[in-house]
Amino acid sequence: MERTTISLPDGLLDRLRSIAAERRKSMASLIREALEETVARHHPQPRSLGMGASAHTDTARRSASERPVPRSWR
User: Fold this and answer.
1) What is the C-alpha to C-alpha distance for residues 49 and 26, in angstroms, rounded to an integer?
2) Distance of CA 56 to the CA centre of its chain
3) Residues 27, 16: contact at Cβ < 8 Å?
4) Do 20 and 30 form a contact (C-beta atoms < 8 A)?
5) Distance CA 18, CA 55 (A)
6) Taking the CB of residue 21, how many other CB atoms lie within 10 A of it?
7) Res 9: pLDDT
8) Which of 45, 72, 49, 74 lies closest to 59 in space, CA to CA?
């Protein structure tokens, strides 16, 4: 597991602390649960490959699954 840092508004951090105490869980576990739910709901938008007669019948399906590797933000 990797470690990361996030910035939260004070009000959100206070609510997170309250929920963690109420559920007797760590704030980190609550954040991980919320991120897992968000990632599970995400469905990538098919990207446009342009117009043309490629003779491929699976272009739409492939465009949804073939994603470029994201560049490092650093």
Assistant:
1) 44
2) 30
3) yes
4) yes
5) 58
6) 10
7) 96
8) 49
With tokens 């342009």, the residue in question is: 50
For residue 53, the model assigns a pLDDT of 62
Instruction: State the pLDDT at residue 51.
Output: 61
- What is the Cα–Cα distance from 4 to 23, expressed in whole angstroms? 23
Taking only the tens place, the pLDDT of each residue in 12-60 is: 999 999 999 999 999 999 999 999 999 999 887 776 655 666 666 776 6
- For residue 22, give the DSSP letter: H
Query: What radius of gyration, in Å, describes the C-alpha atoms of the chain?
Result: 20
Q: What pLDDT is stored for residue 48 in this prediction?
A: 63
**What whole-number distance in Å separates Cα of residue 16 and Cα of residue 3?**
18
pTM for the predicted model, two decimal places = 0.57
